[in-house]
Design brief:
- By secondary structure, the chain is of the alpha/beta class.
- The chain contains 25 helices and 25 strands.
- The strands form five sheets. Strands 14, 15, 16, 17, 18, 19, 20, 23, 24 and 25 form a ten-stranded mixed sheet that branches.
- Strand 14, helix 18 and strand 15 form a beta-alpha-beta unit.
- It is globular, with a radius of gyration of 29 Å.
- The relative contact order is 0.07.
């Protein structure tokens, strides 16, 4: 951005953003972008210093007599200044709330970023500098190396890129097309459908590109059609083995097709490929990275996380009907739901290969939350799932396509046995049992307490007086694995819920949500809950492999109502494991996997080991945040494990620990909040 452009933004704020109608004596405000001001000020100061900035600003103010224009309207300017006042009050309020939650250092950092970049709430301001550093460190674009890689391909399929266009910004349209032309991998065709643009310049630009490169094919619609119709038409006429999609303002990374074809060479039988992506603004600044997990069917239910660079075999795309007109604004989400029902899985490429162009609010791509909900509702009917699609509160507030399945207790009657091991600590046990009885709307469950070496008389008195079903399993020392293995042998129920005695139910539908999730698919092997400490911070939100060379709980110590990275804290999604402090599984699967490992993991990591055994055998692990409980961690036992168990666990699962399929190699293992990798 030139110095003159920066000054013009500031000048327009005073001169053009507010105009006066003398007859009506009213100031008309025209979409004042307050975020432009701090960003522009920062750029001027950074490049030219404070002295130059104030000198130039003084010249602007002196030439523009804005005070005179405001004075003859007297009280009519109130609305303008009220808007400014509300904005200021909001910012200070947001900063204070962030200070109470995260402390002064974090607030100062976020506030500085807001002044620098002028977007979002202080606590949501993206850290541009950190991502820019990551890009410089980890993204290596080498054309010579690319030629060597391409030369080694055993198969080089043609990729058909679909680009629907309607009244595009000519600058960004050119950039989108050039991002295809400049690909390292050159066996492609670009299928452009002009959807009856009424701007003459668009037709001229597209025609020029078609004349320049024979691989660019253009079809001009006389009448405007829906996005789905335009995309489907281009896909049907495509001659490539795979089809991919590009937005008219977006851009592909130079190695996007190269990395995609490399993945195709490695996974010949796969039908779907997708990559990581990020956002890019008008000034070509990249931000808001989206590093995704491997193929996650339950996360697709919650959100269309697969994103924009989606390569699908043309035959598959056409066979399942492509995009649907009747789900306008949620076409891609609807398509992903159908796609996940028709393929065994997709191959994730953990590299940023697509840049999604983000403009100001008025230019955002249209989305339809309701059509997305209807898409999920339709998918549930196809899958014969007992549940209804709903939009979470946080998704409504943010106007984003995130969904949840609401399960009703009257739709289920499968019996669940809740197994609670205990050793004394009757106050904890009583609190746990009473919370289940008072706050569980699921109709068919039984509580089974496993008494392990209790010594206090009041423990046995409680079990007898409350008429709670229990039996004794004595052990020489605490052996979590053996206790559960023996207990599960003695019961006949197929659905079993393992629950710690230091838990307390919060949400009425906790068990309904877990059973409903388990019954979504026969390939779901275990379901975990959202567990929180007494101070309402996350204790467990799924398990991430890799921290401390073993594993840790996702989003640990985050406030339980925060959405977190990509809203993962508040949506149903797949993980490699969940904790047995509250885990629903099937008895048949538990026995098939050999139960918990008594020999090597008697105290710790036995639940994660069990989940990884399920994963290795083709089953999925699901975290459902609607199952909400307190977990007063280790109050009844303390930390009993020794160093041998984590060492054994690490050696056994070394490969998957190094690359957790439901995390991302580009994210940090220094914590469990999905932050950017630094080292």
């Amino acid at each position: 951005m030139k110095f003159s452009d920066i000054l013009r933004v500031i000048k327009n704020f005073f001169k053009k953003k507010a105009s006066v109608n003398k007859d009506a004596c009213v100031i008309k405000t025209v979409d004042i972008r307050f975020s432009d001001i701090p960003r522009s000020v920062y750029l001027v100061i950074k490049k030219y210093g404070w002295a130059v900035f104030f000198r130039k600003l003084a010249i602007i103010l002196k030439k523009y007599p804005y005070r005179k224009k405001f004075t003859y309207c007297k009280g009519k300017t109130k609305g303008f200044f009220q808007k400014l006042s509300r904005k200021t009050k909001y910012l200070f309020g947001a900063a204070f709330a962030h200070y109470r939650k995260e402390g002064f250092a974090s607030t100062a950092k976020c506030s500085l970023n807001y002044v620098r970049y002028g977007k979002g709430k202080p606590e949501e301001t993206p850290d541009f500098s950190a991502y820019e550093t990551w890009i410089q460190k980890y993204e290596k674009k080498d054309e010579d190396e690319a030629r060597k890689i391409i030369g080694g391909f055993s198969t080089s399929p043609k990729i058909s890129i679909i680009l629907p266009v309607f009244n595009a910004d000519e600058i960004f349209l050119r950039k989108a097309i050039f991002s295809v032309i400049n690909q390292y991998y050159q066996n492609w065709e670009l299928r452009i459908v002009d959807n009856a643009s009424n701007r003459i310049i668009i037709k001229k630009i597209l025609s020029q590109f078609a004349e320049r490169d024979s691989r660019i094919k253009i079809e001009f619609f006389k009448n405007k059609e829906d996005f789905s119709t335009a995309s489907n038409r281009a896909a049907e006429t495509a001659t490539g083995e795979f089809v991919a999609f590009l937005g008219q303002n977006d851009a592909l990374a130079p190695d996007a097709l190269l990395e995609s074809v490399r993945a195709i060479n490695e996974k010949r039988n796969a039908d779907v490929f997708y990559s990581d992506e990020d956002n890019i603004n008008e000034n070509e600044i990249r931000f808001d990275y989206n590093f995704k997990p491997d193929w996650s069917p339950e996360l697709i239910v919650s959100q269309g996380y697969v994103g924009n660079l989606l390569l699908v075999r043309k035959e598959i795309f056409v066979r399942i009907g492509g995009f649907r007109d009747d789900y306008s604004g949620a076409e891609k989400y609807n398509f992903l739901l159908k796609l996940s029902e028709n393929v065994d899985g997709g191959i994730h490429i953990p590299k940023v290969l697509y840049h999604n162009r983000v403009f100001s609010d008025e230019k955002k791509k249209p989305v339809s939350a309701e059509n997305g909900r209807l898409s999920l509702e339709s998918a549930l009917r196809r899958r014969m799932v007992k549940g209804r699609a709903d939009i979470p509160d946080f998704a409504e507030e943010k106007n984003i396509l995130n969904y949840k399945i609401e399960f009703s207790p009257e739709d289920f009657n499968e019996k669940v046995t809740i197994i609670i091991p205990t050793k004394d600590k009757v106050d904890l046990l009583e609190n746990c049992v009473e919370s289940i009885k008072k706050k569980t709307n699921y109709p068919n469950y039984e509580i089974l307490v496993v008494n392990n070496n209790s010594e206090e008389k009041k423990t046995l008195d409680f079990l007898k007086n409350k008429k709670i079903k229990y039996f004794d399993i004595p052990t020489k020392e605490f052996d979590y694995s053996r206790i559960h293995n023996l207990a599960i042998e003695k019961i006949e129920t197929e659905l079993i819920l393992l629950l710690n005695n230091d838990t307390e139910v919060i949400s009425l539908d906790w068990l309904t949500a877990m059973v409903g999730t388990m019954l979504l698919d026969k390939k779901i092997g275990a379901v975990g809950a959202r567990l929180i400490y007494s101070d309402k911070k996350i204790q467990h939100g799924g398990v991430v492999l890799g921290p401390h060379s073993t594993a840790d709980h996702a989003n640990k110590n985050m406030y339980f109502e925060e959405s977190g990275y990509q809203n993962y804290n508040l949506v149903m999604r797949n993980y490699s494991a969940v904790t047995a402090a509250c885990m629903l599984t099937r008895k048949s699967l538990f026995e098939k996997m050999g139960g918990f490992d008594e020999k090597n993991l008697s105290v710790a990591f036995n639940d994660i080991d069990y989940c990884l055994n399920l994963l290795q055998n083709g089953y999925r692990i699901v975290y459902n945040p609607d199952a909400l409980l307190y977990h007063y961690e280790s109050k009844s036992r303390g930390d009993d494990h020794n160093l041998e168990e984590p060492r054994y666990f690490t050696n056994k699962w070394k490969k998957i620990i190094e690359k957790d399929p439901y995390y991302n190699v580009n994210l940090s293992l220094e914590n469990v909040r999905f932050e950017l990798k630094k080292n």
